[in-house]
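Standup notes
- HV: blocked on the assembly model, inputs below
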Amino acid sequence: MTRSPVRPASQRGEARLPAVLLLLLVLAVSWVLWSGLYKPLLLGLGAFSCLLSAYLAHRMGFFRHQALMALLPGLPAYWWWLLREIAVSSIEVAKLILKPSMPISPTMVELKAQSDSEVGQVILGNSITLSPGTVTVDVHEGKLLVHCLTRDSARSLQSGEVTRRAARLENN
Amino acid sequence: MIELALDVVSWVLLAVGGACVLIGGIGGLRLPNFYTRIHAASLTDTMATLLIFVGMMLQSGLSLATLKLFAIMLFLLLTGPTATYALANAALLSGLKPEGDTGQSKHGENTQP
């Protein structure tokens, strides 16, 4: 399903300067759009805070995860799919809560992430938490512990569509 | 005409979003224990956030405010799950056992995992 040649983004160590410049550009554009004022003082403060943010990001190891930039093209399609999942499971959870008998069946399941990188696992875990009815409780060595509100939601999680889509996001 | 339609759509979104907040609150009260109550909170966290922010964006039209609202929504949606994970993980690590771990449901029926 890969359209462009597969490039293990996490293994590129040398592409640091473009990443730094891209981050600075994004920060500068958002500062200018946000403030909407073009006085020298504010622009100076903006430049200062952009540089400070870039430095802090560097200290946090943001640029070690080269994968972040490679994710961007696949993101809109992934978000669109996630949005529909969220809508469907929201309605299910709302129905469960409002039913007088409240037929819940809490279940713990363990999922294996298909991606080896930290970023991929974070995206997977957060996507699972984002959809109502499933919460990631623990991430350890590529395995995710997920608490589900019903056995049905646990089963649909184990069918593996989320893990597949989150993994595909990284290598296209 | 289009303005009226936009108004109607945005009010519907805002109302449904408000209902999501309410249902999340009811769930927080009705559900039996910590881990299940988190699920009710996540209904408020994600669905209500999405609906209310899209409703507000439709109200503000094509302006800078819309972009800012979109950014706020994005930040909420990115940081919300992280906070939920921190909460749930802290509970797990401090030894709060989730029921249903062994495949036993709340209503006492025994089901094999």
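- HV (later): unblocked. The longest strand of chain A covers residues 134-140. Confidence is low (pLDDT under 50) at residues 1-15 of chain A.
- Next: hand off to the docking folks.
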